[in-house]
Specification:
Layout lengths: L4 E4 L3 H12 L4 E4 L4 H6 L5 E2 L1 H9 L4 H6 L1 E3 L1 E6 L2 E6 H5 L4 E3 L2 H14 L4 E2 L2 E7 L7 E6 L2 E6 L2 E4 L17 E16 L8 E5 L5 E7 L2 E9 L9 H11 L14 E15 L2 E2 L2 E3 L5 E2 L7 H22 L3 H4 L1 H23 L7 H16 L1 H12 L5
Parallel strand pairs: 1-2, 1-12, 2-8, 5-14, 12-19
Antiparallel strand pairs: 3-7, 4-7, 5-6, 9-10, 10-11, 13-16, 13-17, 14-15, 15-16, 17-20, 18-19
The structure holds flavin-adenine dinucleotide.
Flavin-adenine dinucleotide binds next to helix 1, strand 9 and helix 8.
């Protein structure tokens, strides 16, 4: 089998890349180890930055998002029983975000890819990437019980944090930067309308809580829990009681709406960056190259930024013969990646209570939040970072 761009992984990075290349008249093949149902059900991100929304629209993949997505013009910070709203458009010159689940983005992109004739192979596991330093790198993969080889001009590893593409970068040129946090998020989905019309990020002495949503009838919420927690250890009423406590406020108008919990899971929290993001003709994109803790809602959006950068660079090379942008891919992406790492780390450490936190640490967190609530420039800094860093 032969193609111009071999894409490993049909998460948001791989699927969007296939779409962008198709629109630019460049052929690709997507290999995905899981089946279609699994990819379409995996619960993950839900916040699309302004730049991601714009890219999906330009790619012709936004029809359902524009019908069903929920535009958000702000978030609420809750701390010390206070409420502070961060007004995105007022602080950023008109930028905002969209609540539209990653699963729905993937469903839309899969439908488009298959309608355009694919090729998108499910249950096709990439085993190894070979020949990164040659003009024709190859992906060895297994599909329907048979081993095969996909010969390419370029390989893009969009295969997430446990994928194989990263191994194509030799150990002596790879550098890994990481931090593991001593807590995770217990996430729930519940069949009850959201209690607030925007996301609420709460810092509390008992730990962080986040109130979010998937749709006008489905609540998504998270609680900080110790690393290694088993979701089954938490009863449904216990979760609602804890959310109630951590979201407490002096505002008498506030109430938490409870309803049947339909899903519970625990996500570990870590920051991880693999440098460089390119070796020869093998490129890494999305979680294959970097992970952020979900507090800043950046993971999916970073993946989008990477594949847009690659698709534009390749299109420019084909149009002008200049490979300057392809050469600069890793550097260009990493600038944005480190800004997202910085913001996600800052949000995480400001809002979560570390097991070894002292009263001094608590006061510093409250002072940071008070600064945002009382200074327009601190407020604007958060709003700019949350709504997204500019694409290349
Ligand atoms: C609970 C949770 C909440 C989150 N919330 C947010 C949020 O609000 N906003 C945000 O921006 N981000 C969020 N994220 C992060 C976001 O979901 C990820 O950053 C995003 O999925 C990255 O997309 P990707 O395409 O790079 O990787 P993935 O989505 O991980 O896709 C990788 C794909 O590659 C496939 N694959 C792996 N190995 C192989 C192989 N050998 N051969 C073939 N295929 C392979 C996998 O099956 C998978 O389909 C959240 C994550 C979690 C877990």
């Amino acid at each position: 089998m032969r193609t111009t761009v071999g894409i490993i992984g049909a998460g948001p990075a791989g699927l969007l890349l296939a779409r962008l290349l198709h629109n630019a008249g460049i052929d690709s093949v997507v290999l995905e180890t899981r089946d279609r149902a699994y990819v379409e059900q995996r619960q993950r991100a839900g916040i699309l930055e302004q730049g991601t929304v714009d890219v999906l629209r330009e790619a012709g993949a936004a029809a359902r998002m524009d019908r069903e997505g929920i535009g958000h013009d702000g978030i609420e910070l809750r701390f010390d029983r206070r409420r502070h709203r961060v007004d995105f458009p007022a602080l950023t010159g008109g930028r905002s975000v969209m609540v539209y689940a990653q699963t729905e983005v993937c469903k839309d992109l899969i439908a488009l890819q298959l309608a355009a004739g694919g090729p998108l192979l499910f249950e096709a596991e990439a085993l190894a990437v070979e020949g990164a330093e040659t003009q024709s790198p190859r992906v060895r993969f297994r599909h329907q019980g048979r081993e095969d080889v996909l010969a390419c001009d370029y390989v893009v590893g969009c295969d997430g944090s446990w994928g194989v593409a990263r191994k194509a970068v030799p150990a002596d040129v790879s550098r890994v930067f990481e931090r593991t946090y001593p807590f995770g998020w217990l996430g729930i989905l519940a069949d009850v309308p959201p209690s607030h019309d925007e996301l609420v990020y709460a810092r509390h002495d008992r730990g962080f809580a986040l109130l979010s949503m998937r749709s006008p009838t489905v609540t998504r919420a998270y609680l900080q829990v110790p690393a290694g927690t088993d979701a089954a250890d938490w009863g449904d009423e216990e979760i609602w009681d804890e959310l109630d406590r951590r979201l407490e406020t002096d505002d008498p108008a506030w109430t938490l709406k409870r309803g049947p919990i339909t899903s519970k899971s625990v996500t570990p929290m870590r920051s991880h960056v693999h440098e460089p993001m390119r070796h020869g003709r093998v490129f890494l994109a999305g979680d294959a190259a970097h992970i952020v803790p979900p507090t800043g809602a950046k993971g999916l959006n970073l993946a989008v930024g990477d594949v847009v950068t690659f698709a534009r660079a390749l299109a420019e090379y084909r149009e002008t013969g200049s490979d300057a942008r392809l050469e600069a891919y890793s550097e260009t992406c990493l600038r944005r990646v480190w800004q997202a790492e910085r913001f996600s780390y800052a949000m995480t450490t400001m809002l979560h209570r570390a097991p070894e936190a002292t009263p001094f640490d608590d006061r510093i967190q409250l002072a940071q939040l008070d600064r945002i609530a009382s200074s327009r420039s601190a407020d604007a800094d958060l709003a700019e970072s949350y709504t997204g860093f500019p694409l290349d």
